[in-house]
Structure formats: structure tokens, C-alpha cells
Amino acid sequence: MFSASVATAAIIGAGVLTGPIADTSHSSGMPQKATATAASRVHCSSHDRRLAKKLTGDIANALATRASVSSLSFYDRPTKTKCTFKPSRKYDSASVVKTVILGALLYEKGGSLSESEATLAHKMITESDNSSATTLWKQLSDLKDPKKPNPVKIKKFLNKAGMRDTVPSDDGNWGLTQVTAGDQSKLLRIFSGVDSSVLDGNARSYALRLMSQVQANQRWGATAGAPLDSLIHVKNGWLQRSQGADVEPFDRGDWKVNSMAAITGSGHNSGLVVLTENNRVPEGRPAGEGWNHGIDSIETISRAIYRDIYPGTEGYHPGRPFGPTDLSSTAR
Fold first, then answer.
1. Which of 35, 76, 241, 276 lies in the 20 to 30 Å Cα band around 264?
2. Does residue 92 lie in a domain region?
3. Cα dihedral 243→247→251→255 (10° resolution)
4. For the stretch 182-209, what's the b/e string if a residue is b when 16 or more beta carbons lie within 10 angstroms of its beta carbon?
């Protein structure tokens, strides 16, 4: 076993620099809404320095092939490996925030849910049901102004979990909560770990069990390439921003596609979060092409990581939920 080491690699190419995106097939040529450094870097550390170096290069290559703007956070407990790329950059959450709602609900209730709460939580995670998420968001909010629920109990949970970069929406649009790969990775660590300081063992097991029961057409993304003998726990989110004048120019019509997954069982214990935007629909093409581009970006990264962590092992191939012509503008 080698001593801990850190490796970095510069990413210079499509989707990671300020200014026009090079791959015009999935870009409007608009500048990114947040300024990036000229040479953003993948950071990997591991007790196996060769693994850290290989992961750094392979993740960098995977990022450079995509027009998506992406951030990621990965951990593997058995090999004591961590990788990040822009882990503090904020993204529209879409439905990955439903894991935060679940965590806050379990924290608020001490891990013991009523029958109705359990039904809502199950639908929210396994089906990505939006109305269930809205009901629970309001339950965890101060409703003095019903049009602008203040999610005070969600904020309390975020503080307890150390997820201080997450900014909950204060106007009821929970899908526009600002999340980071680093904070969502912290949540995966809580769900899959042994520390009971935030959630007890029963609550953590419950959260993972719901994420393992996500319906088949929503198991794409950060699951790609995971070893077939592992147990996969996943939650994805996606939305297409409108073309309205109230939306920032960068965001208009853009798909936000996010995925987070924990891998457990058979000696596995890892987690990956990938958040993406700049998944644009080429002019005149079906809306679903932007969504599929985001999924492809996430799965390209995920496969690169799991090929290095489990070389020679057959990986999971998630199905694609819809073809590009089957999807109208939607959010989950």
C-alpha cells in the first residue's frame, strides 16, 4: 500500500473555460454564467498513487470530450480514494434535492415516519414524484407566507450535515435549489456511512433502501460502469429552463441534468455525484437531445472512474429512459 498521494490534471477544452464552447453541436455559444479559471483541475488522492494518477488523467479526458459544464465528487472508502472537479460550483438541483428533503425529513422526525410521510417519501424517491416533494417541502417550511415557503427545517438539516454551500429555494421552487457536487457527496457519505451524529442507522438504511428501489427508467447516470455484484442506490434530476425573459441568458432553454449514486454490498462502498448544465438542444432538434447529452456526459465520467477502480470487472449498463423524440419539456 502506498502512502496517500494527490494528483491533478488541467482540463482545457469544451465546456470548462469561460467564453464560447467549442462543441457547437450542443452549445449556443453563450458564455458560462459563472467565471471559471483558465485551467480548472481534477484533483484525486488515494493510498495508491498509481490509481490516483490514472483516475486524474482518465476523468480529465472524459470531461474534455463533452460540451457539458460539469462538476463531480467521488469517493471510494475501501481504497481511500477521492476525486473532485469544481466541487463547490452551484447548479440548479432539479430532483437531486429530493435526497436533501428526505434527509431533512428523517432528521426532523428522528428517523420515525408516519404512514403518510413514508408514502410520500417513497413516491418522491422511487418515482421522483414532484407533488410528494412539494408536500414534504412545505411540511419542512415556515408557511407564514404560503407563496414563499421558508424551508427552515431543511436549512437546519443542511447545517447539521455540514452542507453549507447548498442554498434552498425560498419561493417554493425546490427544483431551483442551488446544490454542489461536494455537498451532495457529503449527503451520500452520511447515508452510506456508520456515523450516527446526523442520522441514526435505521434512518440511513431507510434512505439507501429507497434509493435502491428507484424505478428502472431512472437508474441511469452515476451508476454506469458500477460493478455488477454491487447494490446501487441512485437519485437523478433533470429540468429544462424556459426561454422566458426572467431567466438568465445562459440558462434559457438549457437542460440541467444531475445524478448521484452510492455503491454498496460485496465489499463495495463508494459514491459519485455529477452535476451538469450547458446541455443544449441544437436548433430544430427534439428537446430530448439536450437531456440525453447530459446523461451521456455523466455516464462517460462514471464509466471512466469505475474502469479504474475495478479494472477487468464487468460494469453496469443502465438503460436510457427515453429516446430523443419521446420527451417533451419536463422536470424531475
1. 276
2. yes
3. -60
4. bbbbbbbbbbbbeeeebbbeebbebbbe
Q: Domains in the chain: how many in total?
A: 1
Cell of 134: 412539494
Residue 206 lies in a domain: yes
* Alpha-carbon distances of 319 from 77, 261, 324, rounded to whole Å: 27, 15, 14
* 292: Cα within 13 Å, side-chain hemisphere: 17
Chain-wide mean pLDDT for the chain?
87
Q: What is the per-residue pLDDT across 59-81, written as a single tens digit (0 to 9) for each?
A: 999 999 999 999 999 999 999 99
> CB–CB of 280/24 below 8 Å?
no
Give the domain range for residue 98: 5-309
146 by Cβ neighbours in 10 Å (0-12 / 13-18 / 19+) ranks as exposed
Tell me the CATH number at 217.
3.40.710.10
